[in-house]
């Protein structure tokens, strides 16, 4: 029998690995405020860590197919955008079949799907390329009255779509710089990732939070995340106290920052990709 050689993995295989690894790392990271993690379910009664893992793994073929579509088509344009839309909708069906109908990774399919395709096309300009794809309109996309669409009507927040169209500013301007800064301070990788999540939360219009807890919830998330960072971050005693307080507040408001969690996964994906270039 021939041993599997790692370098024989295709680019699409490796990108799919990176996307799934980013989702698993996001899920495992603990203690995340009001989100599913190793401690428990956060503000979700229909989610748990095993389900997040199973869901992440079920998306591997979808990420691979998205990368392959990008390589086959070879350029940003409507044909690729519409192929990704179709593959993403099939991936969502695979996710729902795995989870018994629970939405574990809808926002992540969107963000990481675009980034995976972009990485296959332009590994050195990933967020810009993902933004160009997100700006194109998929003529076949259904327009359901999603939670995000309801929040857009009520609060004018355009959520996941706008974040991608702007080139993931929460990741590029908040998450990644904080991840690097905390790593330089030698706080440990888990604390650096928690700090990156908090940095994303300080400024995000997270439609999961808006849908569940309105502006009160959104302000509690943004202010509380900033308070942890101001106190010295997750690695300090004062920061940990603030983090505990934020967890408490968000749970009381039933406000789960699912959008911020997806963007942390996007941040970890780009960080891995940068390391592999
Ligand atoms: C663009 C999406 C996310 C539309 O979402 P919508 O705004 O209608 O809200 P919905 O409540 O369905 O889901 C929002 C998801 O995004 C995440 N999210 C919430 N807020 C934010 C934010 N500010 N930034 C990023 N992600 C966010 C949440 O985790 C949530 O699960 C997506 O579901 C969609 O329409 N996909 C179409 C399929 C497609 O084209 N796929 C191609 C993949 S490349
Ligand atoms: N670790 C995590 N814990 C919780 N949510 C996460 C986590 N990682 C990512 N998410 C994101 O959060 C979203 C779940 O949020 P939410 O439960 O508000 O969505 P929903 O199914 O649309 O709403 P609801 O459960 O209120 O009916 C998922 O789509 C997923 O993208």
UniProtKB/TrEMBL annotation:
Any one biological process term the GO annotation gives: prosthetic group biosynthetic process
Keywords, alphabetical: ATP-binding, Glycosyltransferase, Nucleotide-binding, Transferase
One Pfam family cited in the UniProt record for this chain: CitG
EC number(s) from the headed UniProt entry: 2.4.2.52
GO molecular function: ATP binding; glycosyltransferase activity; triphosphoribosyl-dephospho-CoA synthase activity
InterPro entries linked to this entry: CitG, TriPribosyl-deP-CoA_syn
Record keyword Cell cycle present: no
Catalytic reaction(s) noted: 3'-dephospho-CoA + ATP = 2'-(5''-triphospho-alpha-D-ribosyl)-3'-dephospho-CoA + adenine
Top class in the EC scheme: transferase
Domain of life: Bacteria
Protein family (similarity comment): Belongs to the CitG/MdcB family.
Job description of the protein: Involved in the formation of 2-(5''-phosphoribosyl)-3'-dephosphocoenzyme-A, the prosthetic group of the acyl-carrier protein of the malonate decarboxylase.
UniProt-recorded name of the protein: Probable 2-(5''-triphosphoribosyl)-3'-dephosphocoenzyme-A synthase
Organism: Pseudomonas aylmerensis
């Amino acid at each position: 029998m021939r041993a599997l050689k790692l370098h024989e993995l295709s680019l699409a295989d490796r990108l799919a690995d990176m996307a799934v690894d980013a989702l698993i790392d996001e899920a495992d990271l603990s203690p995340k405020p009001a989100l599913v993690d190793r401690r428990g379910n956060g503000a979700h009664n229909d989610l748990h860590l095993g389900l997040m893992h199973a869901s992440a793994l079920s998306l591997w073929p979808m990420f691979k197919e998205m990368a392959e579509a990008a390589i086959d088509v070879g350029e940003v344009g409507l044909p690729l955008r519409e192929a990704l839309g179709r593959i993403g909708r099939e991936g969502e069906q695979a996710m729902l079949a795995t989870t018994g109908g629970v939405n574990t990774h809808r926002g992540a399919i969107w963000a990481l799907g675009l980034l995976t395709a972009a990485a296959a096309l332009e590994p050195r300009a990933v967020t810009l390329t993902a933004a160009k794809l997100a700006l194109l309109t998929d003529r076949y996309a259904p327009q359901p009255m999603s939670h995000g669409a309801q929040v857009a009507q009520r609060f004018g927040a355009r959520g996941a779509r706008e974040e991608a169209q702007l080139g993931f500013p929460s990741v590029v301007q908040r998450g990644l710089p904080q991840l690097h800064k905390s790593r330089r301070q030698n706080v440990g990788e888990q604390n650096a990732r928690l700090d990156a999540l908090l940095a994303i939360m300080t400024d995000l219009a997270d439609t999961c939070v808006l849908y569940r807890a309105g502006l009160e919830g959104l302000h509690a998330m943004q202010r509380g995340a900033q308070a942890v960072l101001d106190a010295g971050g997750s690695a300090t005693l004062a920061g940990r106290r603030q983090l505990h307080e934020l967890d408490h507040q968000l749970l009381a408001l039933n406000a789960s920052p699912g959008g911020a969690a997806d963007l942390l996964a996007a941040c970890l994906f780009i960080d891995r990709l940068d390391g592999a270039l």
